[in-house]
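sry for the spam today, last one i promise. C-alpha cells for design, 394 residues
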C-alpha cells in the first residue's frame, strides 16, 4: 500500500498557523492594530485620520498632561533613560525607592514593591505566595493575568461564578489546601462592576485565606483622593494584598504590589517576574510622583468622570443592546454577536468615533460588546455625540 509522504499526512507548522488565522478571520475574531500618531487623549489621530476616542484607559486624562511631560524631561536629566539592570543588581534607583514609599502611603499599606507591568505583578505575587498543595480561588471573570498566575503557581485553581460569594464560601469551606488565596479584579475590566471587597474580606477572615485585589481600573478613580478600592470601602486587614497598575489612571507605566512588610519582602526575595527583569526606567518613577500629586489634588477629574457617566446613561436610548450596570469609567454596551459588534464599531469609526469591539475569548461567548471608556479629558458634548451615534445604530 502506498503511503503519502509525511508532509502530506501532517500539515507543516506554517500551514497550521495559516489555517488557524483563517479560522479567526471567519469567526470575526482576528484582531488588527491601529497606528496612533498623537499623544493619548480624547482626540487622537489614528492611521492618518482624526477621531474622538473612547477606547483608552487614560481615565483621568493624565497620559499627555504637560506636568507629566515636564517631569519626564526632569527625570531623564537626573536619572538617564534606562535602568540598566534589575532591581536586585544595580537598577533600583532612588526615584524607584521614593515612589514605592509614596505609593504605600497613598493606599494606606505598610510597604509597596514596583513591577514593570501589572501582568508581571500578578504573576510575581501569586506564584510566590502559593504553590503545590495550596489553592487559588478566582472569580470567573478575572483578568487573564490572574488566571495565568494561578496556573503557573501549580496551586489548585478553583473558579467561582462571577461575584457569587455563596459559591466561593462553599469552595473555601471544602478545601484542605495548606494556603488559600482568593484573587479578584477590584473593578472588572470588561464589565465595569466592582467587587464586594468587605464581604470578600470577611470570608477570607473566616476561612483563613488571603485576598489579592487587582485594582488596575480603580486606582486613581475610586476612593478618597483616588486612593482606590480599599479607600472606597474603608477596607483594612493584614490579609490584604493590593495590586494596581500605573499605566491607566496614573497616565504612565508600571505597577505595584502593596501589603504587609513581610509579604512585600518575600516578593522582593522570590518573585521571579521582579528578580529576573530590568527595572522600569527611573525617569518614569519621577513622572509618577507628579502623577500621584495630580491624582490626589485634582478632584475635578473624578467629578468630571461621574458627570460623564451620568450623561451617557441619560442620553443613550438602549433598544436591542444592553448597557451593563457600571458606575465606573468602563461602560460596556453588550451587543451579542461578534459580527454585529464589529459592524457597530466600524460604523462608529466611519463617523469619527473610536470605540473598540471586545470579543471572545476576552469576554464570554455571545456577549461581544462595545467597551466605552470615558475620560476626564472628554467633554459633555463628546459623550452626547457618542450617545446619539449609538442611538442611530440600534
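last one done:
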Amino acid at each position: 500500500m502506498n503511503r503519502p509522504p509525511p508532509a502530506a499526512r501532517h500539515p507543516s507548522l506554517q500551514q497550521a498557523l495559516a489555517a488557524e488565522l483563517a479560522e479567526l478571520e471567519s469567526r470575526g475574531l482576528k484582531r488588527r492594530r491601529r497606528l496612533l500618531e498623537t499623544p493619548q487623549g480624547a482626540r487622537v489621530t489614528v492611521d492618518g485620520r482624526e477621531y474622538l476616542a473612547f477606547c483608552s484607559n487614560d481615565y483621568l486624562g493624565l497620559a499627555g498632561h504637560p506636568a507629566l511631560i515636564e517631569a519626564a524631561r526632569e527625570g531623564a536629566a537626573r536619572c538617564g533613560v534606562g535602568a540598566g539592570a534589575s532591581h536586585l543588581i544595580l537598577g533600583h534607583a532612588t526615584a524607584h525607592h521614593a515612589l514605592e514609599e509614596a505609593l504605600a502611603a497613598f493606599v494606606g499599606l505598610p510597604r509597596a514593591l514596583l513591577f514593570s507591568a501589572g501582568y508581571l505583578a500578578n504573576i510575581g505575587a501569586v506564584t510566590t505566595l502559593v504553590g503545590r498543595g495550596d489553592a487559588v480561588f478566582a472569580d470567573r471573570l478575572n483578568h487573564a493575568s490572574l488566571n495565568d498566575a494561578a496556573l503557573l503557581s501549580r496551586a489548585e485553581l478553583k473558579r467561582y461564578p462571577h461575584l457569587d460569594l455563596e459559591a466561593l464560601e462553599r469552595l473555601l469551606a471544602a478545601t484542605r489546601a495548606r494556603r488559600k488565596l482568593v484573587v479578584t479584579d477590584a473593578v472588572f475590566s470588561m464589565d465595569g462592576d466592582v467587587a464586594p471587597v468587605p464581604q470578600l474580606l470577611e470570608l477570607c477572615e473566616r476561612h483563613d485565606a488571603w485576598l489579592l485585589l487587582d485594582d488596575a481600573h480603580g486606582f486613581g478613580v475610586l476612593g478618597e483622593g483616588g486612593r482606590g478600592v480599599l479607600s472606597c470601602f474603608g477596607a483594612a486587614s493584614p490579609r490584604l494584598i493590593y495590586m494596581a497598575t500605573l499605566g491607566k489612571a496614573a497616565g504612565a507605566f508600571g505597577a505595584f504590589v502593596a501589603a504587609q512588610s513581610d509579604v512585600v519582602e518575600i516578593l522582593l526575595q522570590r518573585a521571579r517576574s521582579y528578580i529576573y527583569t530590568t527595572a522600569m526606567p527611573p525617569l518614569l518613577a519621577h513622572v509618577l510622583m507628579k502623577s500621584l500629586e495630580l491624582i490626589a489634588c485634582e478632584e475635578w477629574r473624578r467629578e468630571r468622570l461621574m458627570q460623564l457617566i451620568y450623561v451617557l446613561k441619560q442620553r443613550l436610548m438602549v433598544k436591542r443592546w444592553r448597557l451593563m450596570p457600571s458606575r465606573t469609567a468602563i461602560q460596556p454596551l453588550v451587543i451579542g454577536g461578534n459580527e454585529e459588534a464589529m459592524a457597530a464599531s466600524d460604523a462608529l469609526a466611519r463617523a469619527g468615533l473610536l470605540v473598540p469591539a471586545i470579543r471572545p475569548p476576552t469576554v464570554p461567548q455571545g456577549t461581544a460588546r462595545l467597551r466605552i471608556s470615558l475620560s476626564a479629558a472628554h467633554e459633555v458634548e463628546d459623550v452626547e455625540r457618542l450617545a446619539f451615534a449609538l442611538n442611530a445604530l440600534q
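The chain has a mean pLDDT of 95. ok im logging off now
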